Amino acid sequence: MFNKPQIIPGGSHSDQRGTIAFVNDFNFEGVNRFYTIHHPDTSIVRAWQGHTLESKYYYPVKGTWLIAWVKMEFDKSESEWQVEFVKINAKDSKLVYLPAGYANGFKALEKDSIIIGFSVPGEVEEKEILRWDADNWLDWENTM
Q1: Which of 33, 47, 63, 95 is the most buried (most CB within 10 A)?
Q2: CB atoms < 10 A from the CB of 59, how many?
Q3: What are the phi and psi torsion angles at 142 (to 5°)?
Q4: Domains in the chain, ordered, with CATH?
């Protein structure tokens, strides 16, 4: 696995039978669970959750999402943590990978967007999820 966030590209193919979307470079190794998240409107912000041991993959299956992350650098003040983000659309067929040690958040940019998350636990199952206020690090309404 990577030690920093990655965008893993995929692709799609359309013909008379429909469209197939894929991310051939995604390996399910270590994934122990998955979940889907549906945001019925664009006012919902799901942020910030951090994991010290667990890695995450996010794949949009419908709509467009703003996915953001910060490296949890506990030797620095939280105000110094640098936010990064990407806009990702289901039509792009890309996967976002966030390794352990990052806090993340996301927001649907289109109504009725759906994203799937895949979790890869660390060697010891993490019992605590670190949480911060959604307003930390990013102005969700005025980004992108």
Answers
A1: 47
A2: 23
A3: -115, 20
A4: 23-138 (2.60.120.10)
pLDDT 10s digits, 2-35? 789 999 999 999 999 999 999 999 989 899 999 9
43-102 pLDDT, tens digit per residue, is 999 999 999 999 999 999 999 999 999 999 999 999 999 999 999 999 999 999 999 999
Q: How many helices (H) and strands (E) does the chain have?
A: 0, 12
- Angstrom CA distances, 36 to 25, 79, 108, 142, stand at 21, 31, 13, 25
CA distance 144 to 87: 8
Which residue is listed with tokens 């990064």?
A: 84
The pTM of the full predicted model, rounded to 2 decimals, is 0.91
Whose CA is closest to 7, among 64, 70, 67? 67
CA distance 130 to 144: 26
Q: Identify the helix (H) or strand (E) that includes residue 116.
A: strand 113-120
